[in-house]
């Protein structure tokens, strides 16, 4: 007797495979620690079994074969006792509701198969992927054999009839093939999930590596400046007033280093923690005072064109100083044979423009495109992360950074930051009105 209903067989295969992908989607997405979430995961194979029993395969007039044994086996081996028990209880309850005739057959088959699965389960978890697939196939054959034995005990005439027309062998092959395919899909999903998790861990390690390099790069700046001040303090006959000023600046830079370390320990996206009104002219004077000893050591002259008025912005003062010092230090280091560092501040429409220009070695178009990318630097021992941090901080303050450079002639960094107009005491005149 040929097994009718090829469409029903494909439908059963869909009922078994579809919940596997749904389970994968639920596991790979947001995982709330709620009872309903775990209950849903446990009930997926049970729902699969119920659907398989609702659309069974036709054998003979009045007799059908259900593929519910496949989700039952998969639930026990891959979901453990909770998943298998939930599938078992729901399947038996639904079978009892459909009719008591098939209930005793299913109860006997499930009971004997359950003992086999409980014995295999402790070993199954440590098996290789291919061996797990093979074990699932063996369990499917065992389930079908147990079903045939119970069927023979309850209805021997039907059993002999199935042997004569080949239905028993066909159903056994179909169930085993579906079980093997389902196990293969599960292992493939697990393999992809593990691969994705490994990639995520690699990305996390890469981020930590970049973060560590950033901290090292950023902290080096204030430490270098502090070293310059300490060297100046060693000069004989230094003026007491200058000595006190150098000490204050050195301490300020050490505090800035501490602030940078704290900031980068939780670095993900620059957040403006201490928003305040910042007067640009005062910040430029401060940064120039900090960078002057370092520039002097490198034989670099700083020329600053003061602004014609007061320009105020809203932002984080320490982060703005960090950006300016970083860019100015890079400009100084781009002039190994000495040169001039030009600084200028002016208003451009509703923005304040900070221009940092050097007469250093410059960059070509390829270097310019890669500027600001992690682990790219024009310096031998640079990481490129300092400039990247500058770009991100300025963007977080609502501004932008543009770079123009020519090989052998120098580089110009132009920072645009939005002016603050909330305070009526702030004078924000355009350059034309100041002329």
UniProtKB/TrEMBL annotation:
InterPro entries: HATPase_C_sf, HATPase_dom, His_kinase_dom, HisK_dim/P_dom, HisK_dim/P_sf, Sig_transdc_His_kin-like_C
Superkingdom in the source lineage: Bacteria
Domain Histidine kinase: residue ranges: 214-421
UniProt-listed Gene3D superfamilies: 1.10.287.130, Histidine kinase-like ATPase, C-terminal domain (3.30.565.10)
Protein name: histidine kinase
GO molecular function annotation: ATP binding
Broadest EC class assigned to this enzyme: transferase
Catalysed reaction, written as an equation: ATP + protein L-histidine = ADP + protein N-phospho-L-histidine
Residues that span the membrane, as ranges: 9-26, 38-60, 72-97, 103-124, 131-154, 166-186
Keywords: ATP-binding, Kinase, Membrane, Nucleotide-binding, Phosphoprotein, Transferase, Transmembrane, Transmembrane helix, Two-component regulatory system
EC number, UniProt record: 2.7.13.3
